[in-house]
Amino acid sequence: MPRSTAATRRCYPGVIEGLAAFKALGLRLACVTNKPQRAAESVLAQFGLARDFGCVIGGDALPQRKPRPEPLWRAAELLGVTSDTCITLGDSANDANAARAAGMPVVLVDYGYTEGRPISEIDCDAAISSFTELADALTAPTSDLRFAFLRRARVSPSDRAGGVV
């Protein structure tokens, strides 16, 4: 598999629009990754996304990495929200396992770094193809059963206290 370089990286469709929608809802955003801190910050800067995130937690920022919950808890703390008002939006079993351990609902995208495992085999609350699907579900009540978990989640754009990590 060819190695990704700054010249070949592309932002997935719907990411920029989805992040803008989360921000418009008043949600606070964190980027929690197992990539080294500097590499994560560099990629976000390359796409002009760094300003969208209240914090970035790289894999070398704490003694623990995902799938441990500590990076997610730290992100919630830095965002000034409680972990029970956050949703983890990820693309791998590491993300799902960290979210479960942190007590956060987890939504997985069906692309990205899936560790070679189909997301249908990973314990998550919903699977989506674009960030905008989650933003739309947070914006208005939906009959889409994938988002039934939102009825019991404490993530609420109306109280401006939630976060997406």
From TrEMBL:
<dbReference type="InterPro" id="IPR006439">
    <property type="entry name" value="HAD-SF_hydro_IA"/>
</dbReference>
<dbReference type="InterPro" id="IPR036412">
    <property type="entry name" value="HAD-like_sf"/>
</dbReference>
<dbReference type="Pfam" id="PF00702">
    <property type="entry name" value="Hydrolase"/>
</dbReference>
<dbReference type="InterPro" id="IPR023214">
    <property type="entry name" value="HAD_sf"/>
</dbReference>
<comment type="pathway">
    <text>Organic acid metabolism; glycolate biosynthesis; glycolate from 2-phosphoglycolate: step 1/1.</text>
</comment>
<dbReference type="InterPro" id="IPR050155">
    <property type="entry name" value="HAD-like_hydrolase_sf"/>
</dbReference>
<comment type="similarity">
    <text>Belongs to the HAD-like hydrolase superfamily. CbbY/CbbZ/Gph/YieH family.</text>
</comment>
<protein>
    <recommendedName>
        <fullName>phosphoglycolate phosphatase</fullName>
        <ecNumber>3.1.3.18</ecNumber>
    </recommendedName>
</protein>
